[in-house]
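Technical note accompanying the year-one report. For the benefit of new consortium partners, we illustrate the data format agreed upon in the data management plan: each record pairs a sequence with a structure-token string. No post-processing was applied to the example shown here.
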Amino acid sequence: MRLNRRFLWWEALSLTLVITLTGAVHRLRADTGTCGGASFFTGLTSGTSATTYSPGNNVTREQMAAFITRTLDQSLKRGGRRAALNQYWTPASTDGLGLIIAGSHPQLVKSDGADLWVANMGSSMVNGTVSRVRASDGKKLEDWTGATAAEGVLVAKGLIFVTGNTSPNGKLYQIDPSQPVGAVTTLPISLGDSPQGIAFDGARVWTANGGGSVSIVTLNPVNVTTVTTGFSHPAGILYNGANIWVTDVGDNTLKKLDSNGVILQTVTVGNFPQFPVFDGTNIWVPGSNTVTVVRAASGAVLATLSGNGLNIPSAAAFDGQRILVTNQFGHSVSLWKATDLTPLGSVPTGANTFPTGACSDGLNFWVTLQGQGRLARF
């Protein structure tokens, strides 16, 4: 289909255009060139062939989508911390990864903007710890103890919250980073059975409990409400600024909740959905060898991505430009461009590494390597 009108700015970008500047006539050559002796390059259009532009043609929907996508991509590339620090590379192999010792069986990880917080489940789900790693140089700063079966991590209210994946009553741990390192504080509440993912809505902490529920925790004073209706096996959870969304392994869905934990919408996604991420517009849900991209505003499935190295994906992360997904049994990570879902390839993390959790600090991706007890800087 074609749009019914031509766009003046399209002609300015993609055509040879005669314009008047300070009373003189100058020739403006799109993307390659010159205007009154000044040169420029935008990269928003590449013409209708390798050698031609087509000023008489209407703009197709596909062309317009390409212009918008390229505009967004350029803004993201030029506005990010990686660009400011001249870090445009993507590691091509395990040699490109920075490796830091974390703890035993690291699970999920989150950044507080300066440090990384890693939930280490511990051997046989005992002796769990939470590691604090400085992002600037990868130095491990401290290990907080007493976090039995630590799994999910949340940074909120200047505090660190961690789920304890215990059964039948789940635990919620709290760390105050301003205090001397020691044992985590176990909050005096019981979450639902086997809590994994954790999120914050600006007032309350939410946990996705694998035993078949969602817990809603109020703070000061601490209180918990656990909702079971409609849930089978929740795993991941996030807040997109409007609603809480939960992945449910039991029926392979992504569920949108209201403020009381009531299910408002159910979206079918790939098998075994795990720990999703929100990129500001879309929710990326890793599942069994697929990633389902869901528009948060409507719940519509935009795409079901496959290939690109996906192999039992576990967690997704967003760095402002790219989406990274960990492939737990593929011993690799896969990347996509967030704006148009273009695959950017996969990178191995090493034999028997079992990459599990992922996050971004706005500069680097960070990936937990469960099989090695390490945190990788990507």
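Partners are asked to follow this layout when depositing records. Confidence is low (pLDDT under 50) at residues 1-32.
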